[in-house]
Structures are given as structure tokens and as C-alpha cells.
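User: Hey, quick favor. My workstation is busy. Could you predict this chain's structure for me?
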Amino acid sequence: MTENREEIVKRMKELTALLLPAARAYYQESREIMSNREYDRLYDELLELEKVTGIMLAGSPTQKVGYEILSELPKEAHETPMLSLDKTKEVEALQDWLGEQKGILSWKLDGLTIVLTYEGGELVKAVTRGNGEIGEVITNNARVFANVPLRIAYEGQLILRGEAVIRYSDFQHINEEIGDVDAKYKNPRNLCSGSVRQLNNEITAKRNVNFEAFMLVKAEGVDFKNSREEQFQWLMRQGFDVVEYREVTRETIPEAVAAFSDAVETSDMPSDGLVLLMDDIAYGESLGRTAKFPRNSIAFKWADEIRETRLLEIEWSASRTGLINPVAIFEPVELEGTTVSRASVHNISIMEALKLGEGDTITVYKANMIIPQIAENLTGSGTVRIPEKCPVCQGETEIRQVNDVRSLYCTNPECQAKKIKSFTLLVSRDALNIDGLSEATLEKFIAAGFIHEYADIFHLDRHQEAIITMEGFGQRSYDNLMAAIRTASHTTLPRMIYGLGITGIGLANAKMLCRTFHSDFDAMRGAEKEELMETDGIGEVLADAWTGYFASERNNCQVDSLLAELTIEQEPESEEEAVFAGKVFVITGSVEHFANRKALQAEIEKRGGKATGSVTAKTSYLINNNVTSNSSKNKKAKELGIPIISEVDFLNMLGGNDNADQGTE
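Assistant: No problem, here it is.
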């Protein structure tokens, strides 16, 4: 018994050592070093051991509510501690807990808990939950939340709690505007946490943070008829958004839980379960609390749908940062209504903790009913070998430990996965214009080994089966992508040249080179520096960049392979007189006589001129229909003595207004 007790205490110490860093990373640093399911499993094990032994270790995560705050924001103690909620995954446990009482069942939103205080009808303070006893004052940020009333009709002191959340739709929109895949936010909760705690509330205002009230703490002089639902209704009348809820009894709980469950995948609000609250205020408060939990409410987490399957292999996915993540590929199973066959393992630490090996029997589930994860390895062979070569470039790999997490990296600076920007430029609108090949999609394809060089983009049909099973893809998306690639294979030489990403060679310079060399690409890439500099707009720096690029045998081979996939459409050489040869134009403001600025730019280039974006000493003319405006470009042109002309002036330079409205068809 003594030896057994010692083993139990040893295990408790091990669990505490595992849980504390995971909790600190999640709550303080908005990152994850352990899945939610694994954390809950270990937490429950520690809690059970504490009950069995009656021992409470110092620093046990079961007795701490949150952690020390590291932010520079002002700190303030809460009037009453903000406790965590006890939890269950069993509907029957909810029924037993509620008994004969009436309850309020609502979403358990996945954001950041905030306490708002109003006095005299004005919002005077907003404080984060923090560690449950001391929070951060974020009043200025709360004032720019999307839906927080700055003034309400009630003029007494009002204290309420709610969850600050960013909707999935807003989260996706914000991520779409971030060009760098590695800079994108992992989930709405992380984005919300950073947004709410900004020192500059202008950033917060742009994030569209919503506040969903879930608890009224204090409102003197108001008769709520001893009902939490009446409090919710009163808050709504004051202008607050209240978390979506249902009134329930013991008998109706199963039906209500099922309704929320059905709504999970379509709900725009991120959530990680439900909360059941006693409607009877006095009765609920009379129950008191434990050291960690209030007794008037309980959390419900979805009982994950778990399926057993066989691990087929670990696929190693490389990214632009050099990070190579393990991805589990397993025999397909049905989970939450969809077929899944792959799940990210995140890093080597998690992979080793699961003791994964090909052929192992594993169980899988969808975290929050959305993201496929490995729950458990039932056989634990631990035979997966960490690759010594990068799956994309075959360069050397190394294991690095960052923040207690072991991860695999490619050490080759020339790895194609690190050159994602070059592939992104090639498929961009002004280059080959391949709709459907976003930067994120390219990164997936490169990581999977589908794309090593430019020409591989035109052979993605070799990977049809794998592509249509990728997350975010299907047969229709694949078919649309293939159609876009076929269309893009018919292009022009300037577009192809621009897409190569030669330093400083934009689309306008590419067009000028094609005009100078009469679209003879072999002559163009074999030209000497002096020949190139005879092209208007090509100086010594750009000529060096061009010759340097084509001095590389690898670059020439890659370009030849790309050209073999393309049909270069010959653009008829302009018969127009090159009246603008050597002239540099800048276009600003709206246009009236051309369909858009692109059409006006095309007319300039057709006549031998060049259009740029900034006014400099080399600018010949600034085209602005509002010639008298005080815009920055007008001011700059005036300072440099550069003529400011209208579209009509430009057309007159061509010999009259008979060219008006060109490019409108």
C-alpha cells in the first residue's frame, strides 16, 4: 500500500508538471502545446487521484483559477472571484444536476470573459477575467467593441459578465487579408484574446469584437422576480446582446442539447460546449461554491464521437518557415457526418507522446465537432521515424526545441517550400492569373510534394485523388482549378516574364523589353547588359538583375520547362507612333474617358510610354482630372515642377478627342 501510494504521488507530480505549462501556454500566451481533449483527460486523472489520496500538491492546477498576468495593461482585483465551472459530458448528469429546478441552457462561448461596470448609465470600467481574482483593465478597448452600449437607461450601478468573441465570418475575413500564411491566426479565440488586450484600441476597433452577456452580477433596486431569465430579458432591454439560450427542465434537457448540437457547425459564434444555470437566483446562490467551482452552474462539453481506425502513415508537411509538421494519414472513417482520413499531429512532442507507428490502432475525433484529432493510440508501437531529409527539397532536417515543444525544421535556405512567394507571384492576376491557387493552397500543394518547380503547376492532374480529399477541396473545386490552369496556359510573354519575379522587372518593364526585342525571348534572355539598357526604363540595376537571373542554369531550366507548358499568344506590335517614348506617367484619381486606369495605362504603353505609381523626379506627367486638388501627388508634382494634366489634355497630346472612351468595350 505504501509503495502504491508513493507511485500515486509520483504520478500526481508528473500530471501537475504536464498540466501547468499547458494551461499557462493556453491562457496566458494564446498557444497550444497539448490538445484540449488530452488536457481534460489528464486533469480528470489528477482530480481523481486527489480525491483518492486526500493529498493536494502545491500549485495543483485543480486549485488554481488562471495564472499570473504578463500584460502591461493596468490590473485590478474583482469584487468577487470569477471561478471556473465544473463540467460533464453526460446529458444524464445535467438532468441529475438540475433535478426539479428550472434551468437556463446556453452556449459556452470560446473567447475572453469580460466584466463590465456601468454607473449613472455610463460604461465606466471593463476588466478581463485574468486569473479569476485580478484582471486587466481594458475599458478603452471595450468602448470600441462592435455591440457594447456606451450608455444605458438604467442609472444605478450595474455589473455584468460576458464573453468577448470574434465571429467565424470575421475571423476568416481578417485572415484572408493577411498575405503571409504563417502570420494568419490559428483560431478566433487567439485572435480575440490579442484584440481585447491591445494597448492601441484602434486595432481593437478593426477586429469587430462582440460582447455576449451571460451573467448579471449586480443591479440594485431592480426586481428580477428571482429569475435569471428575467435578468437576461432585462439586459436585452438595456441594449445588450445576451448569449443564445433555452429555458429547460429535467425532461427537456436532452432535446435542448440535441438542438444546440445540430447548430454547432452552422453557428457563427465560436463555442466549446454549453452552460446550464439555475434559473432560481436565491436557490442557486444558497448552494454556495467549492474552492474552485460555483454550485449554481455547470458546463457541458460535447461527448466526442470517437471512431477506431488504423494509422497508415505519417506524412511530413513543410512550410515557408522551414517547420515540418507530422500529419497522420489513416483509414477513412465517418465523424460528425463527414468522412475524414487525416489529422494534424502538430509537432514531434505530441507525436512522441502518442507513440505513433504505421499500422497502429488509433481512435480519432473532431475537436469541438470540427477539427480532426487523434484521441488515443491503442497499440503504441512508437515506430515512426523522424525524417532526416525534407520531403520537399531533400535538404537536411534538424529538431529544435522552442517553448518546451520539439519540432522538425528544414535547414536548406533554397527549399521550395520557403519560396512560396515566387509561386504566388507566378499565378497572380497580372502574371498567369490562375484563379483558385491561393497562397494557402500553394503551400499545401508544395508541402505535399505536388509542386517542385513552375511547370509542375500544369501537372496537378497527376494528384487528383489526393487533392479532392484535402480539407477545403472536393471534386468541384478540383475541376474549377483545372479549368483555370488550362485557361492560364494561354498567356502573353510580358505576363510570363513578370511572373518569374526577376527583381525590379514589373509588368510595365516586361512590356518594354518585349517591345524592344520584338518579343524574341531567346534574344532577350541572352542579351548583354548594354543591350538591355537601351530599353526605356531599364537602367544598370535592373539590367544586372536580369542578367544575373539568366546566368543561373537552374533558372533557365525552370523557365524552359515552364515555356513548354505555355502557349504564348503573340501580341500584334503597335502600329501607333511611339509619341510617348521615354515619357513616364503617373495616374491618380478617377478616370472618365477610359474604362479604368489599366486601360489608360495600356494606351500609354502602346505609344511607347511607361506608367508608374509614384511621382519622382523622373516623372514626365501626372494625370489627374482634378488638376487643382491638394492631394499628396499633386503637391509632389508641383514641388518638382512636373506638369499636371487631365485625361482631355492627354487625349489632345494624342492628336485630338477622337480617341476618347478607349478601353470601354
